[in-house]
Specification:
- By secondary structure, this protein is α+β, with helices and mostly antiparallel strands.
- Among the domains are: 65-107 and 148-161 and 256-364, Ribosomal Protein S5, domain 2 (2-Layer Sandwich), CATH 3.30.230; 167-252, PDZ domain (Pdz3 Domain, Roll), CATH 2.30.42.10.
- It is 26% helix and 27% strand.
- Strands 8-4-6-18-21-22 form a six-stranded mixed beta sheet. Strands 9, 10, 11, 12, 13 and 16 form a six-stranded antiparallel beta sheet that branches.
- The protein is extended, with a radius of gyration of 36 Å.
C-alpha cells in the first residue's frame, strides 16, 4: 500500500509533494473573481451620491423658519417695579387677574438661514412648526408693525370708551380705480366730507355710512395752506361700502399717555390684547376677577380683530404660562381645531366688542354661551 501525503503551499494551493520537482507538475492558476455587475456599480454610486447629498443638506442653509412657543407677557405685571402696560394722565384701576400677550419664538430668517438637519429635527418635533421663509417687506418691518398696532389699539380702545382722539388725516395714496385720481394730491389733508368737519378718524369713517357705492361725495382738503373742495363718485370697497379709493395716514393726538414696555417683540398680532388691556385699566370694573386670560389678534381702527400666524404655538405658550382661556381671531379657528392643549378653552372673537364681552364673561364665570374654536 502506498501512502500519500499532501502539503499546503504558501499561496494556499494543495499540492502533491512528490510532483513539485517534476517537470510534468501542474502549475496552479489563481482564482480570479468575476467582475462586479452593472447593478452593483449603480447601487454603490447611488449610495455614495445619497450620502454626499445628505451631508451637504445637513450644513446647507435653506430658506425656512422654525416657530416655537414664545414667552408670554402679563400686561399688568408690576413685579419688577413697572407694569408692561402703563397709562398716565388719567385715572386707572388695577385689575386682579392676568391678561397675557402671547408670542412665537422664530428661528431662522434672511440673515440666519437654517441647515437641513435643524429643519428636519424641528419638523419631527411636536413643539415646533416649519414654514417657508417670508422675504417680503409689505407693511414695513416687524418693529414698525408693532408700533403701528399699538397706535391702532389705542384708538380702538379709546373709541370703545367713547373717548375722542383728534386726528389729522393725510392722503398718501390713490387706488387706480378711484374716481379721485385727478382731484387729489399726495399730502392733501382731509378737513371735511359733504360739509361735515373731520376732526377724528371716526368722523371720516362715519361720513361714508349714509352713502352707497356710486354716490357722489364732496371732499375738502387742505393743500399748501389753502382749502380745496372736489366732488367725484365713490366706489365699492368689495363689501358693499362706499369709499373714496384712497390710502390715508392719520396722525393722532392722544388725550393722555399710553405706553408698553415690551422689548424684542415685533409684528402686529398683539393689537387686540393691547386694546383689551387699555380698556381694563380705564374701567372701574374688575373684568378678569382673578382669571388668567391670554390671546392674540390684529386690530384695526374700527376695532375689527384679524387673523395671525403661529397661533398654535401661541396657544401652547399660553398653556405653559398657566392660562386657561385664550381669545383667538375667529378666522384662525380652522387651524386651532385639534391643537388645543388639555384644560384650555379657545374663544373665537371677531371684534373688540366681542373680545371685551368674552373677558367680562370669563371673569364673571358666565361662559356657557361663549363661541369656541372647538
Amino acid at each position: 500500500m502506498v501512502s500519500e501525503s499532501f502539503a499546503i503551499s504558501d499561496d494556499g494551493i494543495v499540492t502533491d509533494p512528490l510532483s513539485v520537482a517534476s517537470p510534468k507538475s501542474v502549475v496552479p492558476h489563481p482564482v480570479v473573481p468575476p467582475p462586479p455587475s452593472t447593478r452593483l456599480i449603480v447601487l454603490a454610486l447611488s449610495g455614495l451620491v445619497t450620502a454626499l447629498l445628505i451631508a451637504l443638506l445637513t450644513v446647507l442653509p435653506l430658506p425656512y423658519l422654525i416657530d416655537r412657543p414664545g414667552p408670554t407677557f402679563d400686561m399688568f405685571d408690576d413685579s419688577e417695579g413697572a407694569a408692561l402696560l402703563s397709562i398716565d394722565g388719567v385715572t386707572t384701576y388695577a385689575p386682579s387677574g392676568e391678561l397675557r400677550l402671547t408670542t412665537v419664538a422664530v428661528q431662522g430668517g434672511p440673515e440666519h438661514s437654517l441647515p437641513f438637519g435643524t429643519i428636519l429635527r424641528a419638523w419631527l418635533s411636536p413643539n415646533a412648526m416649519v414654514q417657508p421663509e417670508y422675504s417680503g417687506t409689505e407693511g414695513g418691518s416687524t418693529q414698525q408693525q408693532w408700533v403701528t398696532s399699538q397706535e391702532m389699539a389705542m384708538v380702538a380702545a379709546l373709541s370703545h370708551q367713547d373717548i375722542e382722539v383728534p386726528a389729522e388725516v393725510t392722503i398718501v395714496g390713490i387706488e387706480p380705480e378711484s374716481n379721485a385720481q385727478r382731484f387729489f394730491e399726495y399730502g392733501d389733508v382731509i378737513v371735511a366730507v359733504n360739509g361735515s368737519t373731520i376732526d377724528t378718524y371716526d368722523d371720516l369713517d362715519a361720513a361714508f355710512d349714509p352713502l352707497d357705492p356710486g354716490d357722489s361725495v364732496t371732499v375738502t382738503v387742505l393743500r399748501a395752506g389753502r382749502e380745496v373742495s372736489v366732488s367725484f363718485a365713490t366706489i365699492d370697497n368689495g363689501l358693499g361700502r362706499a369709499v373714496m379709493g384712497v390710502w390715508v395716514d392719520p396722525t393722532f393726538n392722544f388725550p393722555f399717555d399710553i405706553g408698553v414696555a415690551i422689548d424684542n417683540v415685533g409684528g402686529p398680532s398683539g393689537g387686540a390684547l393691547f386694546a383689551l388691556g387699555i380698556i381694563d385699566l380705564l374701567t372701574p370694573e374688575d373684568e378678569l376677577d382673578g382669571e388668567k386670560v391670554a390671546g392674540t389678534g390684529t386690530i384695526d381702527l374700527e376695532g375689527n380683530v384679524g387673523p395671525i400666524g403661529g397661533i398654535v404655538m401661541k396657544i401652547e405658550g399660553a398653556a405653559r404660562a398657566g392660562s386657561r382661556w385664550f381669545l383667538a381671531p375667529a378666522l384662525n379657528c380652522p387651524s386651532v381645531q385639534g391643537n388645543i392643549p388639555d384644560g384650555m378653552t379657545v374663544v373665537a372673537v371677531s371684534t373688540l366688542d366681542e373680545a371685551y364681552a368674552a373677558m367680562v364673561a370669563i371673569g364673571a364665570g358666565d361662559t356657557a354661551s361663549l363661541p369656541s374654536c372647538t
